[in-house]
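From the shared-data thread, chain only:
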Amino acid sequence: MADSTDASTVDSHGGHPADPSKRDMLELLATAGAAIFGAAIVWPLVASMNPAKDVLALSSVEVDLAPIQPGQGIVVSWQGKPIFVRHRTPEEIKEAGDVRPSDLPDPQADKARIKAGHDQWLVLIGICTHLGCIPLGNKPADTRGEFGGYFCPCHGSQYDTSGRIRKGPAPANLAIPPYAFESDTKIKIG
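Structure, as tokens:
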């Protein structure tokens, strides 16, 4: 006598018909468990890459411009970087504006490096684009190089009164941080 049970529905443990819905449920539970376990391991690793609270606290800095006289510059710290804030004189503004961008190693007009209506204020990240040194030029006694801006004594890079590279090994102009004027005498960096 032939057994009428189809071979495809017989399991290997006693010849009883296999229940496909139980197998699917076990596969679903195993997959969900593995996904939850994987997320539980990955989440702390990803969270550890977020900036620390002390770094987030320095994500923006307000600077009072009122005490800075024409021709003076100050250095403030933003995200661990020196930021040069300079109150340019009319002569420095004219000198920077008279330079043709096509004559520069890293062509950029002075107007592209300042906020409209605030020509007298120059805000730069004070890190030389050659090897990351901090250029001189904010203190009255500092050497400013041939172009009256900033001078990096490590390898001789010279920047003009707009922070543009004019001479030396630096490949690019001094970078400009994100900043905005909150009033005529206050900026917010970051």
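The chain has two domains: 16-47, 55-189.
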